Every structure is written in structure tokens, then in C-alpha cells.
From TrEMBL:
InterPro entries: Ig-like_dom_sf, Ig-like_fold. Residues 60-71 have a biased composition (Low complexity). SUPFAM superfamilies: Immunoglobulin. Residues 50-71 are annotated as: Disordered. The lineage of its organism: Eukaryota, Metazoa, Chordata, Craniata, Vertebrata. This is Uncharacterized protein. It comes from the Eukaryota. Signal peptide: none annotated.
């Protein structure tokens, strides 16, 4: 079940400056296909702000996020 899935992200916290390119990875404790999901969603959260949903293939500006690369 989805409730039993554990997600881990590396690195846990990432501090960057404007214009920096960053890499972050995410791993699940079980196959997403086992819960009939073939995708993952990414969020960006800045200190003191609510998370913003990052959707691959959509410009971040449409989602209220600053311009940049999201995957």
C-alpha cells in the first residue's frame, strides 16, 4: 500500500544560489508500479514558504515557481 512506502531524497537539504545547477535524487522503498503509479511528483520549498508543485513538461512560471529547470 502507498501508506507503507518510504521515500528518501539525497541530499536531504540543498542550499543554492541563483543560477546554480543542482542535482537531487529520490528513491522509493517499493516499486511505484506496485501501487499502480508510473510517475513521481516533485515539490520545491523555500524557507518560510509553502511547497510549490513542480510538474515535468510545464513551465515553472505557470505553477507560480521561479524560472529554472525542474525534473
Amino acid at each position: 500500500a502507498c501508506e507503507d512506502m518510504v521515500m528518501s531524497q539525497s541530499p536531504d537539504l540543498l542550499a543554492v544560489s541563483a543560477g546554480d545547477m543542482v542535482t537531487s535524487s529520490c528513491k522509493s522503498s517499493q516499486s511505484l508500479l506496485s501501487i499502480q503509479k508510473d510517475y513521481m511528483a516533485w515539490n520545491q520549498q523555500k524557507p518560510g514558504q509553502f511547497p510549490g508543485f513542480c510538474t515535468p513538461g510545464r513551465p515553472p512560471g505557470e505553477l507560480g515557481l521561479p524560472r529554472g529547470s525542474y525534473a
